[in-house]
């Protein structure tokens, strides 16, 4: 198994161990909508662990670059928040909540690119992602406010 696959598996395993905290996007301090949160949900009992952990894998956190650490932090938050959102009983609300978390993860990844990236075109794409995803989050949150009970 290559390093990328092992690291990916370790990320998935590590996300199951995180506490449920709202995802905050630094640029605009967007928070995960209250209507998407699932109270009393214990992700550690969801059977998501895939056997790896960040300390014993091929790339321990201490050996990661600052870029990799920042990306990893954003991905962990996104996965836990997305799992919380898709556990909603209403299929429409579940979809919207999952997509909001997914978009927040895309914004987080893009912010990491803006901070650490060197390529002008990649940074321009990252900014386009941020702009588009923030607008869609606003639209989806408005839908939640109107439709979610």
From TrEMBL:
InterPro entries: DUF305_CopM-like (IPR005183), Ferritin-like (IPR012347). Residues 1-27 form the signal peptide. It holds the Pfam family DUF305. The keyword Heme does not apply. Keywords: Signal. Residues 42-144 form the DUF305 domain. PANTHER family: SLL0788 PROTEIN. This is DUF305 domain-containing protein. It comes from Rhizobium mongolense subsp. loessense.
